[in-house]
Amino acid sequence: MTANSRKPLVLVDGSSYLYRAFHALPPLTNAAGEPTGAIYGVVNMLKKLLSDYQPDHMAVVFDAKGKTFRSDRYELYKATRPPMPDELGAQIEPLHAIIEAMGLPLLCIDGVEADDVIGSLARAAQAGDMHVVVSTSDKDLAQIVSAQVTLVNTMSGRCLDVAGVAERFGVPPERMVDYLALVGDTVDNIPGVPGVGPKTAAKWLQAYASMTGVIEHAGEIKGKIGEKLRAALADLPLSYELATIKCDVPLALAPRDLGIKPPDTERLRALYQRYQFKAWLAALDKNQDAETPIEAPSPVADQRDQPRAEEPRADEPGDYETILTDAQLTAWLDKLAAAELVAFDTETDDLNYARARVVGMSFAVRPGQAAYLPLAHDYPGAPSQLDFDLTLARLKPWLEDASKLKVGHHLKYDRNVLSNHGVTLAGIAHDTMLESYVLNSTATRHDLDTLCERHLRHTNIHFEDVAGKGVKQLTFNQVALEEAAPYAAEDADMTLRLHRHFWPQIEAMGRLRTLYQDIEMPLVPVLSRMECGGVLIDAVQLAAQSSELATRMAEAERAAFEAAGQPFNIGSPKQIQEILYDKQGLPVRRKTPKGQPSTAEDVLAELALDYPLPRLIIDHRGLSKLKSTYTDKLPRQVNGRTGRVHTSYHQAVASTGRLSSSEPNLQNIPIRTVVGRRIRQAFIAPPGYAILAADYSQIELRIMAHLSGDAGLRTAFDEDKDIHRATAAEVFAVHPELVSNDQRRAAKAINFGLIYGMSAFGLARQLGIDRGAAQDYVNRYFDRYPGVKAYMDATREQARERGYVETVYGRRLYLPEIKSRNAPRRQYAERTAINAPMQGTAADIIKRAMIAVDAWLQDVRPSARMVMQVHDELVFEVATDAAPAVMAEIVPRMTAAAELTVTLKVEAALGANWDEAH
User: Fold this and answer.
1) CA 640, 641, 647: angle at the middle one, nearest 5?
2) CB-based contacts of 38: which residues, under 8 Å, 6+ apart?
3) Which of 168, 710, 716, 778 could bridge across to 721 with cysteines, CB 3.0–4.6 Å?
4) What does each C-alpha distance from 22 to 12, 80, 87, 589 come to in angstroms?
5) 3-state helix, strand and coil shares in percent for the chain, rounded to the nearest 5
6) How far apart are CA 35 and CA 42, in angstroms?
7) Strands 864-870 and 873-879
8) CATH of region 710-837
9) What percent of the chain has pLDDT over 90?
10) Whole-angstrom Cα distance, residue 271 to residue 284?
11) Where in the chain is the domain with CATH 1.20.1060.10?
């Protein structure tokens, strides 16, 4: 997900809100006299967060019992705090129980405080390019605020970004630890400087830049306050250490492991009844689960959760059958043949489609009527099952009959697995994962369990319920049949019910129906063919590259040792810090939150302009990452049966409609460095074939020209000008031939920056110029391209009115925060409103191109086939003797994939490998 469309990771300081709620609310109790006020306050706050942010990932963090490392470091730390009131302590366990029943991850880590856990998760999330919202009332956490981390106080409504921290405290986030150390904390027993308050601390830091600067100039500060400062100098390092949030706590869970699970409604009902939360209980009983994040309004609201009159309710037990005899199989084959639409699902022994084998299949011909056909359960004592090969042969005609319509959930996986058995699944009419995704890509996860919980108010049997968890988890063929059968049959049953819930909504929305039927569904077999075909890589070449990288890493390490004058651990930030700053005395460009000189990549890059050692460290890091991520790993991903790498393409992940891929992630293979391009050289064609790469040129800028109708942009593209040079000529008022490299670079940053909602501040930082000059560039750009400015203004206004934006092909992206009173969240939604129509339209166009090209390829097999889709590029294996003719057919089909007012341009080339084809 891009920075303009992703949802944030929400981290909740549970301990902070626990005390706030306890003291803010009256002493509420239930009929049994049990205190409930703090529970009510915290849960209400969590519900508001879920409603405001609709996160997919979240954690509620509490302080664990017992001492922390700060207590060990300073025995007086928090020593004078009064003990927790009994009536508050009594609410902790039920509060934790409710949070867990809501499906929210809950963390309590021994030896550290909630702040340290939150800081560590936030740092890890930033490293993973996630945005983070920290919900807290604790000012200490202001020290972790950054461009990707925002604080929100749900009780007061205050939100703090980088500018907000500076406005509130008088210092930026990176100086907050200095500020806290100087002010101290009487509640926590952090000494600080007696008598120094927030204003004095901020004034000193503004004057002397840091606490170190204040200490160095302590003699200059006059009066009683200067005396108090000098008397406290010995304690300031300790105060700094105690105030610093520990951001490297070892955690068992990574940020992306903190997914919100469906709520346990029965457990919630019992807890709400006990503690007498009547409004929440009523919401549960009315099938309006308050624990589920609020989604955008359904297009057909009156059809939500309304089963057809002849259908059983989703919470009523279905009529499920286990097929174990020929007579049963014959009867079900008759039912399959007679049904207009059948819900179909496979059960397998592996989640990786390229390795998976079928264990059984399930079918549903009407809601509540489903069956499971076991074929390969092989645990001790398993009942006799129908012969695998003979049964598959009897089913094959129905499976491969395009007139026998099927609905499933993620049917691409089932199609891929069946291909391992020589069966080509046809008649794929509907997919509930894609139905949900098309209706609202941002509202929810699109897995079957989540959708059933949300739309049918039904909790499915979970895989863990039948197969166990962790190291004891069974593969499905090892699951006892009496447990496997209802689980598998229910999947088919609920898939059919979901389809009958979603399809009327899609039918009622003409453009979405066209998007679903003409783009998303036809793409399923196209992606399946690509995945199953795989791509050939040269494992020997990658192994050689790994060896070369290891040699270059060793050379870089030796050179670094020589430049440092001694050996050191080049992977240790602490030792790098000692060498660069303590031994070599390099200037400190930035400090860590702990006040130590930073060894971050951007800091080293700045130092590398003037000093050799930082450059050698950067080189070593880059080589190490390429080796571990690509040259070492890719050969291990080669399938033993096919000899190829098989990625997985994901249709229902990116909210804009873009495809993503995993294992391997083809989108992240580098192209701009020599070493990175060598990795692409390992993606090869088999003997007698070549690699053909066809790439849309500047497609999002062309879409901007179409959407905005700007005459200047259209003319530049129609005349096939260098768009960045043309923009530079307009912005800087010079002849195109006189545009300098720096001017073209600035124009390129403006062209792409505006698409992604970049502000003048961001442009200034990217170009290394002052903000005023950057704003002048933007103003001149809009003066020359007024249609772009008018389009952006109109799109923001339309998004505010509708609550969503659309692509050229009707794909919707809902923007629930477009009217938020919180300025950062509202501005984020406005930037998304500008970017999403372009990104989404580009995604729609390349999908249309894939469908058109694939249809043609089916007629020319085996002379060519599509093997990869990466960003705006399609990659093919083409028979060498047919390559020019194939290219002549593919390029116009890609060009014709959209009818825009600006001509699409496709650049294509051939090569023995992927890199050569660029």
Assistant:
1) 75
2) 18, 21, 22, 25, 88, 91, 95
3) 716
4) 16, 20, 9, 44
5) 55, 15, 35
6) 13
7) antiparallel
8) 1.10.150.20
9) 62
10) 12
11) 537-643
Q: What is the pLDDT of residues 111-151, one digit of tens each?
A: 999 999 999 999 999 998 899 999 998 889 999 999 999 99
| CB within 8 Å of 417: residues ≥ 6 apart | 346, 348, 353, 356, 357, 358
Q: Where in the chain is the domain with CATH 3.40.50.1010?
A: 9-162+247-257
Q: How high does pLDDT run on average in the chain?
A: 89
Q: What's the confidence (pLDDT) of residue 843?
A: 96
Instruction: Express each pLDDT in 690-700 by its tens digit.
Output: 999 999 999 99
Report d(CA 597, CA 590) in Å as an integer. Answer: 6
Backbone dihedral angles phi then psi of residue 656, each to the nearest 5 degrees: -80, -10
Report how far residue 418's alpha carbon sits from residue 353's, in angstroms, rounded to the nearest whole number.
9
134 within 8 A of 119, measured Cβ to Cβ: no
Least confident of 391-400, 465-474, 604-613: 465-474
CATH 3.30.420.10 domain span(s) along the chain:
297-308+317-533
Beta strand pairing status for 342-348 and 406-408?
A: parallel
Fold of 297-308+317-533: Nucleotidyltransferase; domain 5 (3.30.420)
Query: How far is 341 from 553, CA to CA, in rounded Å?
Result: 59
- Answer whether 788's CB lies under 8 Å from 708's CB: yes
Asked if 753 and 762 touch (Cβ cutoff 8 Å), the reply is yes
Contact 356/532 with Cβ under 8 angstroms? no
The CA-atom distances, in angstroms, between 157 and each of 101, 281, 816, 823 are 26, 26, 17, 11
Q: Which residues pair with 906 in a beta bridge?
A: 696
611 — phi, psi (to 5°)?
Answer: -135, 140
Closest CA to 760 of 782, 743, 727: 782
Per the confidence metrics, is the pTM higher than 0.85? no
Buried residues in 471-498 as b, exposed as e (16+ CB within 10 A): eeebbbbbbebeebbbbbbbbbbbbbbb
Q: Encode pLDDT of 274-318 as tens digits.
A: 998 888 988 887 654 433 333 333 333 333 333 343 456 555 656
Phi, psi for 672 (deg, rounded to 5): -90, -10
Residues β-bridged to residue 13 = 61
Compute the distance between CA of residue 144 and CA of residue 153 in angstroms, rounded to an integer: 15
Per the CB < 8 A criterion, the answer to whether 712 and 784 are in contact is: yes
Q: How far is CA 421 from CA 16, 242, 355, 356, 861, in A?
A: 56, 62, 11, 10, 21
Residue with token string 């929400």: 10
Has residue 530 got a pLDDT over 70? yes
Residue-wise pLDDT tens digits, 645-659: 999 999 999 889 999
| CB hemisphere CA count around 454 (13 angstroms) | 22
Range(s) for CATH 1.10.150.20 in the chain? 710-837
Which class is 537-643 in CATH?
A: mainly alpha
Let me know how long the chain is.
Answer: 918
C-alpha closest to that of 139 among 105, 113, 122, 115: 115
Domain with CATH 3.30.70.370 in the chain: 675-699+842-911
According to DSSP, the residues that pair with 805 across neighbouring strands are 813
E strand intervals along 742-801: none
Q: For residues 751 and 782, what is the distance between their CA atoms, to the nearest angstrom?
A: 11
Q: Residue 145: its pLDDT value, please?
A: 96
Cβ atoms of 122 and 247 closer than 8 Å: yes
| Gap between the Cα atoms of 439 and 431, Å rounded | 12
Q: What CATH number matches the domain at 675-699+842-911, 3.80.30.20, 3.40.50.10860, 3.50.50.60, 3.30.70.370?
A: 3.30.70.370
Stated as kind and residue range, the H or E segment containing 66 is strand 57-68
pLDDT digits (tens, 9 = 90+) for 566-585: 999 998 999 999 999 999 99
Helix (H, G, I), strand (E, B) or coil at 444: coil
